[in-house]
Write a structure and sequence with these properties.
Layout (H helix, E strand, L loop, with lengths): L2 H16 L17 E3 L21 E10 L3 E8 L6 H7 L6 E2 L8 E4 L1 E2 L6 E3 L10 E4 L4 E15 L5 E9 L5 E10 L1
Antiparallel strand pairs: 1-7, 2-3, 2-11, 4-6, 5-8, 7-9, 8-9, 9-10, 10-11
């Protein structure tokens, strides 16, 4: 999927989440074919949590993206979460109640777009069908895009506090040059 399509999907999800006061179903493990190891206890999950923004909208993701291989870079950034629910609620519901989007810098030399759908709450997502056609690493300086191939290995972990990590191996550009890497983040 091209970057413009991902940006539009991400924008639509954020707009839906920002304007929503609807409720979301509780996280369930493995519905819709997703492979998620749910790390939240059933006592910690609230049925139909209300999605409400944090007062003042001052919370954010703090993240580090590290890439090696055909491209070697490290990018540290923050992403504001104004008008979105507190970190623990966001971890339960995801963005707009159906998707988790790993943190994305507003402007950086490298960006990693990655969405998990369907999102079923905190856990490990390693089944490629949950992020099919949604992973793209782009080197903005050269315009080079690295995408998953059959040999790619990828995983996203979301913790109950909204922190997490994403790891990838063998994302390739059109010439077969490969990159590996990770993104880690905290939510506060």
């Amino acid at each position: 999927m091209r970057r413009s399509g991902l940006v539009l999907v991400g924008a639509a999800l954020l707009v839906a989440a920002c304007g929503s006061s609807a409720t979301s179903a509780p996280a369930t493990n493995g519905s819709n074919g997703a492979t998620a190891t749910n790390s939240a206890s059933s006592a910690g999950q609230v049925a139909n949590p209300t999605i409400a923004a944090v007062a003042g909208g001052s919370h954010e993701f703090s993240a580090t993206l590290t890439v090696s291989g055909a491209l070697t870079k490290t990018v540290n950034f923050t992403q504001g979460l104004a008008n979105l629910p507190p970190c623990a609620t966001l971890a339960k519901t995801g963005f707009a109640g159906a998707t988790w989007s790993i943190p994305l810098p507003n402007s950086a030399a490298e960006t990693l777009n990655w969405n998990v759908t369907p999102y079923n709450g905190p856990g490990t997502y390693s089944d490629a069908s949950t992020y099919e056609n949604s992973v793209e690493l782009t080197d903005q300086a050269s315009g080079t895009e690295y995408d998953p191939v059959d040999a790619s290995v990828m995983s996203v972990i979301v913790k109950v506090d909204g922190s997490g990590s994403a790891t990838f191996q063998n994302l390739e550009d059109t010439d077969g040059n490969a990159v590996n890497g990770s993104e880690t983040w905290t939510c506060s």
